[in-house]
Amino acid sequence: MAPGGSGGGGGRCSKNEADSGFLGLRPTSVDPALRRRRRGPRNKKRGWRRLAQEPLGLEVDQFLEDVRLQERTSGGLVSEAPDEKLFFVDTGAKQKELNKKRTKSQKRSLLLKKLLRVDLVLENTSKVPVPKDVLAHQVPNARKLKRKEQLWEKLAKQGELPREVRKAQARLRNPPAVKAKPGPQDTVERPFYDLWAKDNLLDRPLAGQDAFFLEQTKKKGVKRPPHLHAKPSQVPAVEVTPAGASYNPSFEDHQTLLLAAHEVELQRQKQAERLERQLALPSPEQAATQVTQPEKVEKVERVEKVIRGKGRSQDRGPEGALSYFPQTRV
């Protein structure tokens, strides 16, 4: 053992001396208790492997490799395989079949069935199933196509068919007329015409057309289909607000907007006043005048008729003429 420390009392010793063992025989040997424990970096896998027990890690790696080999060769662990898969009864039937002599045609058929070596090398010999490639089995726009099929099934129950089917049915009901190819006799009987004459047969369809049309293309434009003229929605278009209604308008735009609003309010006020005048009850004086006025007019018309019919008599003076007018109270 190492000698005790100097100082007061030989019974006391330091911690290193108490934990130390026997010294080595070599002069360079050091007390094991004085050595520090060497710690490697723990943030890297290299430190994990060095600090881990190598026999345990090696054993785990060998076990996992053995499991992978069994899965590739037999499709699973041999310890978990049933007896029927591991053992079989040898009846010798295959040996008898091999002893039979094959004909040339049988040998040729066997050779044709046998794969080439290049194909055997590329063949998968592992019993582990290949993981499915999900993307390879997916159809682009599968959800959209499925919804479309469901929609057409629903419409087919209601009696509505797709456009392609309707066009095909219409083509079957009204087949297009087959154009007869002109034969040599028709070509000979074709009438002749003067190419430079004014009444040329080829220029008749172009009569009355636009000058630019005749100069450039000589082809009629595509007719706009009728469904493009119909409005897609009955909702009116979005009205664009005037410039004066913005967050920070100019002075002129703001005054223009105020003037337009003022005119609208004036028009509304005039309509309200007109409606009030039409619906207002007349005063008592106006009501009496409205009642007596028609009676007065009727009496005046009656007197005028009498004057026209009989004429003015000489014995009647202006007083007599005025006597026909009844006195009315107003």
Give the tags.
disordered N terminus; mainly alpha; 330 residues; elongated; disordered C terminus; 15 helices
Protein architecture, described:
- The chain has 330 residues and is mostly helical.
- Among the domains are: 45-82; 138-174, no CATH class.
- It has helices at 15-19, 45-51, 54-74, 83-86, 93-99, 104-113, 117-122, 134-137, 142-157, 163-173, 184-189, 211-215, 251-279, 284-310, 318-323.
Tell me the layout of helices and strands.
Elements: H1 15-19, H2 45-51, H3 54-74, H4 83-86, H5 93-99, H6 104-113, H7 117-122, H8 134-137, H9 142-157, H10 163-173, H11 184-189, H12 211-215, H13 251-279, H14 284-310, H15 318-323
Summarize the structure.
With 330 residues, this protein is an all-alpha fold.
